[in-house]
Design a protein that fits this description.
single chain
Length: 97
């Protein structure tokens, strides 16, 4: 972490937020699905977990990269993938319910 990169902390905290948005909704809907008796209640969770896991990996890679351009690119990829996973999670949940 160099003194010439003033946005390092911002990217680090944004990566933490991306991790929260990757894990939080999946855990919440997993708890809802475990309480529901329907067989299709687990479908959104099973679709969104691998997508959000990829997004979480990109977020962690963004946190650990020293180069600011590569870190910003990985963070943008993580945000896009997690957004896609959450849209799939809530979209499939709306179709099943």
């Amino acid at each position: 972490m160099g003194l010439d990169d003033p946005t390092h902390e911002l990217r680090w905290y944004l990566s933490l937020a991306v991790l929260f948005f990757a894990v939080g909704p999946v855990v919440a809907l997993a708890l809802v699905a475990s309480d529901a008796g329907a067989a299709g209640a687990w479908a959104p969770v099973l679709v969104a977990v691998p997508i959000n896991l990829v997004g979480a990996v990109f977020a962690v890679m963004s946190m650990s990269t020293r180069d600011s351009r590569i870190s910003a690119r990985r963070l943008a990829t993580a945000v896009g993938v997690v957004l896609l996973g959450d849209i799939a999670l809530f979209g499939i949940r709306a179709l099943v319910a």
